[in-house]
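**Protein of interest**
===
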Amino acid sequence: MALIPATILTGFLGSGKTTLLKRVLTEAHGQKIAVIENEFGEENIDNDILVSDTHEQVIQMSNGCVCCTIREDLRATLADLAARKRRGELDFERVVIETTGLADPGPVAQTFFMDDEVAEAYLLDSILTLVDAKHAQEQLDNRVEAQRQVGFADQIFISKSDLVEAPALAALQHRLKHMNPRAPQRTVHFGEVAIAEVFDLKGFNLNAKLDIDPDFLTEDGHAHHGHDHDHDCGHDHAPGEACHHGHAHHHHHDDDVKSFVFRADKPLSPAKLEDFLGAIVQVYGPKMLRYKGVLHLKGTERKVIFQGVHQLMGSDLGPKWAPGEPRVSKMVFIGIDLPRDILIKGLEGCLA
């Protein structure tokens, strides 16, 4: 059986991965695609956004810390998919893995080389990294994951370029080129990318990866492959370089970044919600890395899909609520030291 091509889709929180993926899934290209998702947080929202009008095979692994646990989960999931394809139980031609925005793509890519069963079934085609033009400079300054996502990219898609001035975009492009000279860059608008720019790029060159991370293929990779949970390690790094101080890694699991979920069975008042969220992002916007939800608003028969990053937020109408479907609002907030009690109390005050 021919090897199944696999694409890893990465990028920091809010960079537009789900938007790009939805675009790819809904384009009339005739390809059957299996999607593996990993979302940071206890509630998977993307499934509601993604599969509203597609019939893809979506497998979710909502297990929190992607970098420590996805390797085994991902290996088992990929092996299971390949076995079901061989038995004729599933029909798909390629796999897309959407990582959480906090993921180091290194261990995800490792899975395709460290495990014989996976290596015999799949070909890692490329790692696609989305970069948010509006917030990238700050993220690259402060987050080692964002640096490594750029460093591992075979193709960089720059989103939200319409929100920055031309000199700022040029400066970002220069910085990205300095960090990863081998990855072509392309600006994208709302995930509108031709399928030929996403699949069959044959971009993943293992030798190039070893330049970034010499320990990439060591069996003891978990201790050495640059999982820098300890963000303030006190070492100086070149751009895109992670900290390699061997077994001294302390697993803080992104303790500065937390997520929580708000759920409500009653409908929300659109006016109250707009006022509250507007006030909240003014105060806490810089610390709000990512927030999104599927909302039940009073006065509409359709789901409202709501997404934001820092002070930027937007919403649009999703599909109609299905007959008998529970009309529940679900919102996920991912951020640094967010006042959970204040947010939840405020959202409860927005109920109609």
Summary: Residues 66-86 form the longest helix (21 residues). The first strand starts at residue 4 and ends at 11.
